[in-house]
Amino acid sequence: MLRGMRKASSNWVGKTIMAIVMGVLIISFGIWGIADIFKGFGQSTVAKIGGTEISLNEFRQIYTDRLQQISRQFGRPLTPDQARAFGLDRQVLQQTIAEAALDEEARRLGLGQSDDQIRQVIMNDPNFKGVGGNFDANRFQGMIRNFGYTEQRYVAEQRKVSLRRQITGTIGAGLEPPKAMLDVLTRFQNEQRSIEFVRLDAAQAGTIDPPSPEALAAYFEDHKVQFRAPEYRKISFVVVSPEEIGKWSEVSDEDAKKLFEQRKDRLGTPEKRQIQQIVFPNAAEAQTARERLAAGTSFEDLGKERGLSASDVDLGLVTKSSLDATVGEAAFALPAGELSQPIQGALGTSIVKVDKIEPGAPADYAKLAGDIKREIATERARVKVNDLRDKMEDERGGGASVIDAAQKLGLTAVTIESVDRSGRAPNGQPVANIPVGLDVVSQAFNTDVGVDNDSISFKGGYAWYDVLAITPSRDRNLDEVRDQVEARWRQDQIATKLKAKATEIVQKLEGGGKLADEATAIGAKVETANGFKRDDTPASVPAAVVSAAFRVAKDGVGQTPVTGGTEVIVFRLTDIVDPAVDAASEAVKKLKESIDRAQTEEQVASYVNKLETDIGTTINQAAFAQVTGANQ
Length: 632
Description:
The chain is α+β, with helices and mostly antiparallel strands. Helix content is about 50%, strand content about 15%. Strands 12-3-14-13 form a 4-stranded antiparallel β-sheet. Strands 9-4-11-10 form a 4-stranded antiparallel β-sheet. Strands 6-5-8-7 form a 4-stranded antiparallel β-sheet, sandwiched between helices.
């Protein structure tokens, strides 16, 4: 029944029905101090900021886009539960409300942005520039498509972003960090220190006699919790992914050659052309420019008149696909040395000239056969994965275990007899037969025996798992862990002796002794580390020692345990270099920029919070929970 309810609520229609049947629990959004008020808008509205309503569908699209972007960065899908655990749902809502508040303020102030200004903003975006350094329409279309935007929606969003920047840019303008702050932070970051030090390890601890049975038993009783056996679980799982299924697939040369013939033009080395291009805002200007070019004016000179550099005009050797579709068709139809007629492209009217043509080379099937077959196998595997997923879900929905369902579908289930929460077997070694990246162990420790668990997304496919048995955590007896207990007892004895020895050396140094003499007395050598900063990691010097060195005065001494206390470092601070502050240096400039950003962000945040309060902000918690899955 639970699986049926979960499937019924897997889409927005089902969620709405389930919300009506089960009711909605409304939780306060006190983090922003915004009252949760439902009057003034309906259940299809997630939030209202002044006169702007953020609809349920609009917020769903924004939230889904953000989840997909982060999933692409992680390389794996981000589940709604994970997103809520990270606080992503609240962050997206907070950002959406802040943007809406700025949009309201832009309308109140009467701010605007012309089509030409927006076009220039987009064309000047370095993310959309091709190999020649100019705007690449195909790159633009591909990138916005990857992020789920249509051109119309992207342009509209950029218009809003530009208006928001007008407001936030004004708020942050003129902010300057105090010179005293820059001086203090620069000195703090760049102060350099030097130390001399000795290492005390097991050799300096002296002989450690074996413990008596009574002493070992007493130590075990005092530290019994450290030797407690962890909880173990017996689990089974099965993985269905394109990578795995693709290994089973055999692709014939006949099938591979069919795909090769379909893509032969794209698989070969494409023709390239050395092209010069200038984009004009309208056809009339373009025609006038062409007449001047035909009369002998160079592209470079014409570009200079329009504020373009030589690299802006000369696209270099480019392929047809790297250009705007209309421009590409015209440019690759021209003979070398020919000047085009005005070409109407996506973002203006172009004039192009072909300086050189570099012929392409046909594709070679023999060289590409392996890649083509793997691609076909993977594509077939994706179809097979979806088919097996549906069949597996049907079997699981009918009450079959993972092992039984896998056996019926011809899949291989893996059974792990005993694994702890860290993925280790009772012998302390990592369990070997779990695919890298499959988070099945932690998932198994969040459920119970007999629970019908959801599948896990994994490498474009899925994994299903069952918990077959649970062995509770328990206290071990001394005989089970005698060797471990004795090793730990010995480590503690070494740490205790080293701490006492280090304290004795520090006291002698503070009384005027020399570190070299103390090192000779214990059979150690003096080492040095010079000119390190707070964030440096000098060779062979642990980070704890670097940190301790910045807590003592000149000629001060100290001791720092490392590696669990089985090594102790005693040091003396030999030098402090307080650097001069060069306001013109790159480091100070970068620090200033960082402080500027922080101050601006703080100012903008305060401004937006005040806006939200002044214009009135309300949130429909039920609609928010419906979109983010909090009501499931």
